[in-house]
Amino acid sequence: MHYAGRYEASNIELEKAERLREELYTHSLTKEAASLLTSENVKPYRGDDFEDVLINYYKALNYLYLNKREDALVELRRADEKLAYLNLHYEHKNVYRSDAFMEFLSGVFHEMGGEYNDALVSYRRALESYEDYRKFYGLEPPEFLIKRLLLAAKLSEIYEVYEEISSRFPGIEPASREKGLLIVILECGQMPGKKEDFVEIPVREKNDTYIVRVAFSYYEPSPIPVVSAALLADNLQAELRTMEDIQAIAIKNLEDKKAREIAKATLRATAKYLAYRKAREETEKYARKKKKSDEEAELLGLIVGKLVNIFTYTTERADTRSWLGLPQTIMVGYMELDPGSYTPELRVRKRNGSYQTLSLPTITLQSGEIKILSRRIFN
């Protein structure tokens, strides 16, 4: 719906998804217990942290295109609050504790309303978040983020921040206040699905061998279809920068969850093993009560134990559910333009060596005005 321009309908569905996810944090005790004897797949899928945050990203864009800038900012704040809450309640902290791209968008949205102090705060937080992005995802802060930060500091008259950023990034001048600004968001590719792997441990048990099977999910990264892209307008050209590597975030987020997943898997394997032991013992006890010989009782216990082991083995599956419609990366084009009308386009170079031109709507920019456009390319 979002890509079809049905922004209100899109937000209705995204709101339902967000509300459902919040409700699912109230655990169902029945399904929690069932998952101990089967797998995580019996529980409703709540989504990964980055998936939850991207709900707010799409809602924010929808509101922006509906000319509801303040509602868009509410969504970006909610995304930040979600990450803060989640990491506060995790025993093992995630690397993905703030979203640099969302903070950048927040700064731009504040600028659109002339809220330069708030824009400055958001831009600084985006820059701080890129410290993690550089370390874990290999992404550097784009130069235009520094330019907007310097302009916001200058217009807010917070000169100590201006001097600090200028000294850290010598040679970068603040963005022009007189020119208009065109920002183009390009969402690239499609997220790969999770895969599963297993670890099997044989456990000797009287006259039987119980097979402990533990399942784990993982991401196998797939090539991103876009190698590079350029924004073209009025004989000007600007290369797009990757600001969000969703695939890299997903892989690292899953790694960060590994300790929690191992703890769950260990608990599940223990519960299954105890169920196997209990089934054998109760079967043998019942058989002896029915005057069966020890050999017959043990044989019946062995048979029931085997059946329980087959059940626990085959029901042990990793949770491979995910939001497959998400892009792998988000690139951003930035161009400062003199006031006037423009018909921009994107020139995309594909991994297969071909080029694709994406047309963009004609825009009119006033001095100091900011316009945001977005496109999606799947393959």
From TrEMBL:
InterPro entries: TPR-like_helical_dom_sf. This is Tetratricopeptide repeat protein. It comes from candidate division WOR-3 bacterium. The lineage of its organism: Bacteria, Bacteria division WOR-3.
